[in-house]
Amino acid sequence: MKRSFLRWSAALSLCLATAMTLSPTWANAANPRVRVATNLGDIEIELQADKAPKTVANFLQYVKDKHYNGTIFHRVIANFMVQGGGFDPQYKQKPTRAPIQHEGRAATAAGLKNQIGTVAMARTGDPHSATSQFFINVVDNAFLDPVLIPEGDPVARFEYQGQVVENVPRSKLINHPQLWGYTVFGIVTSGMDVVQKIRNTPTGAGGPLPSDVPKTSIVIQSITLIP
C-alpha cells in the first residue's frame, strides 16, 4: 500500500471533481411528478423512480400521508441548497417513519448528480438515516455525490482527489463516511424562479435552530402528485 488508509482517509476532502449538465434526456415518461405548493409559488419535480426507486417510494409515501403539508424550508444557504420537509412553522420537528437504506451509489451510477436543480435526501452522519427531509441544490455540489467504489476485495487501486491507495479492504472504502454522499432522487422541471426566491431570502436564527433559518417562514402548503 502506498500509504496507510487511515492517513489517506484523514486527508480526504469533501470535493468530487465531476461535472455533468442537466439535460431533457433525463426525463422519463414513467417517472411520477409532484407539485410543491409554497407561499412563494409552485415548484414541479420529476421523481427519478427508474434510478432511485426506494428513495422515491419513501418520498411518495410521505406525500400520500400529507406529511409535508404545513412544513417549512428551515435551512437556506444561498451558495449551497435549500432544505425542508421536517419542521412546522413553530420549529417543531414532525414525527417520521423509520429511516431508509441509502441508495446513492446506484443513483449516481445511473447518472444522478448533486447539480443545480436536483433534489436529494437530507440525512445525519449515518448514511442510512434519511427519512422525510430533502434539499434542492441551488449550485452544483459535486462534493455531495456518492463515490463509486471499484470492484474487487481488496480494491487493487483507488484514487480520490489526487490520493492513491492500493490493496484496501473493500469494506473500509464502502463504509467510509466521506464516500457515501447524498442520494439524488428528483429534478426540478418547473419553478426554479421560486427556488431562487427561497435561496435569496434573508436568514438568521429561528426557534431552536441557530442559523440559516428564513426570517419570514417559507411554508410548503402541500405536495401533490401531478396527474
Name of the CATH first level of the largest domain: Mainly Beta
Average pLDDT across residues? 88
Question: How many alpha or pi helices?
Answer: 5
**Helix content range of the residues, please?**
10-25%
C-alpha end-to-end distance = 55 Å
CATH topology-level fold name of the largest domain: Cyclophilin
One letter per element, helices H and strands E, the order comes to: HEEHEEHEEEEHEHEEE
Low-confidence stretches: 1-27
How much strand content do the residues show? 25-35%
CATH architecture name of the largest domain: Beta Barrel
Report on this model:
With 227 residues, this protein is α+β, with helices and mostly antiparallel strands. The protein has 2 domains: 31-146 and 182-225, Cyclophilin; 147-180, no CATH class. 16% of the residues lie in helices and 30% in strands. The protein is built from 5 helices and 12 strands. The strands form 3 sheets. The chain has an 8-stranded antiparallel beta barrel. Strands 7-8 form a two-stranded antiparallel sheet. The longest helix has 12 residues, at 53-64. The N and C termini lie far apart (55 Å). The model is unreliable at 1-27 (pLDDT under 50).
